[in-house]
Here is the input.
Amino acid sequence: MIDRAKVQELVERLQETEAELYRELRDEKERVTCDFAEERIGLWEYIRRGKIRYGISAPIIYAMIIPAVILDLCVTIYQATCFPLYGIPKVRRRDYIAIDRHRLPYLNALQKLNCVYCGYFNGLIDYVREIASRTEQFWCPIRHARRIKGVPSRYWHFLRYGDGKDLNERWKKLRQELIEAHDEILEKR
Here is the structure.
């Protein structure tokens, strides 16, 4: 049987380590200096220096924005309609999608566009993943049989693969924990 207290302790240590990492990176910005005039590469120079294969792949990369926007819309509608029915706390998009690097003065217009694209797309994936993770905790909180990379933060609280003892009781408990998290989230805001 899993020691839920030990798992919670480990998750909290991971969160503390992540907070420490962010503090270190925040302090790093005080040490960063840049001569924007020297570092900036003009748009046409940037394009001229680019490799032809990058230019060929650009339409494919930029076309991916269409399914991304559709995914964003669908998942947002799903969450807006289903989460209140289940009592699951909603995921705030702004906690995951950060579009700010386009403000950096040393980037040219194309670099800024790329930064907007990546900030949106990668943030969207994290946003979708959190919505999926909350859905999974509500409907099917069972860990996989094999190790997977990049698990959602709540994954470690899921039930062990193959451990069906008192399944319904423990399943209900995990659902209740998710629903109760709604109050904690609102208090933090």
In short: The chain has seven helices and no strands. The CA atoms of residues 69 and 140 lie 27 Å apart. The helical segments are 4-28, 36-39, 43-49, 52-63, 65-86, 109-139, 167-188.
